[in-house]
Amino acid sequence: MLRNLDLYDPIERTAVMESSEFTTYVDINKNHKGPTDDKIISEIRHSFYEAHVDVDIAFLDKLWEFVERMIANNQGLAQFTLDYKGAESDFFFPWLVAVATSPSEALEMAYGAGKDLKGNWIEKIEKTSDPIVSFVRNDPTFVYNRERQLFVADLVTIIQNRARSKVIDLGAGRLAWSRWHGFMFTPCAQTIYACDSDDTIEPEELFTSNLENLGIKYQKADLVSVLRNPPCTDADLVLLSGVPSYIPLETFSHQIVPAIYQILGSHGIFFFDYQINCLYLQRSMSIFNWPKMYLYDDAASCIAVVETIRKNLWNRGMKFSAEYAIDTYNERPSSVMITLEKL
């Protein structure tokens, strides 16, 4: 439950998507063998060039070359592009590029921010009439990301009540929780150690203020190397948002969680989340070529797994209490957000 009324969700959802809007594309890819129908590819291409006659052909050709490769053997994505008028959008094709090259950039679309056809960064897409706006507002991928980042912003704000608090954000991406939800930095009282292995991130470009003035120390590094050489010990809060579902359970439970326990201070908190095998994730993995995820059938299964991890650690002298929050914005639960407190 969020407890800080100064924080907010910056984008209002306008519709709840029906189950068929996800299963349609999963079924297409299950049932269609071989390359995408040439007629569909030709229709997408015609729509793309026709809708953007005012854009330099060189920009269009470069994007089309990339997207054509994506849809050539992915009829589900091709049909999705037609159904949601993706070829008419100034932002959908650049977003597909980001999905393949920069996850942190792709997730910025949850806030209506992304690159246009010319590679210009636009921060207010949701204020336009572009076809992608409904996708931004209502797709569960983005809706849950906003809920999770808002939850994290609340946690970091609460931790500010501790003297000289330390926060470690592992897999920080573009620090969306600190930029989009009204979060207030307290550099004299709180230091935020952030790390990510996404080479496309330019930390100093994320904020108008200097990172040092905000109390942020950003490191380009992967999760394992940071845990081996943590940026700080005695942490008040460690964040691992959106990452555990990509990590095998044995690695997560036997290596990562114990390592995080060691760098937490007394009553330090570890936040992470697990995704559920829901329809929208099945669609996203099928048509957007997401990396393999280790998904659980329902929220109860997620919680049972974490409770097993917690029991095993407790028996080894590493004691955590636990709280669970199931996402609330989607028609069906898609994730469980977990806070473990070191005892």
What's the short story on this structure?
Strand 3 (165-170), helix 9 (176-179) and strand 4 form a beta-alpha-beta unit. The protein contains 14 helices and 9 strands. The chain has 343 residues and is an alpha/beta fold.
Report low-confidence residues grouped into runs of 5 or more. none
Report the mean per-residue pLDDT as an integer. Answer: 93
Distance between the termini: 21 Å
Helix content: 40-55%
Question: Helix and strand succession?
Answer: HHHHHHEEHHEHEHEHEHEHHEE
Radius of gyration: 21 Å
- Strand arrangement, largest sheet? 5-4-3-6-7-9-8
**What structural category do the secondary elements indicate?**
alpha/beta
Shape: globular
User: How does the major sheet shape up?
Assistant: 7 strands, mixed
Counted beta strands: 9
Number of helices: 14
Strand content: 15-25%
Describe this structure in words.
With 343 residues, this protein is α/β, with parallel strands linked by helices. It has 14 helices and 9 strands. The chain has helices at 20-31, 38-51, 57-71, 75-83, 92-101, 103-107, 132-138, 140-159, 176-179, 211-214, 223-228, 249-263, 279-287, 299-315; strands at 114-115, 121-122, 165-170, 190-196, 216-220, 235-240, 264-275, 320-326, 335-342. The strands form 2 sheets. Strands 5-4-3-6-7-9-8 form a 7-stranded mixed sheet, with helices on both faces. The chain has a two-stranded antiparallel sheet with strand order 1-2. Helix 2 (38-51) runs antiparallel to helix 3 and helix 2 packs parallel to helix 4.
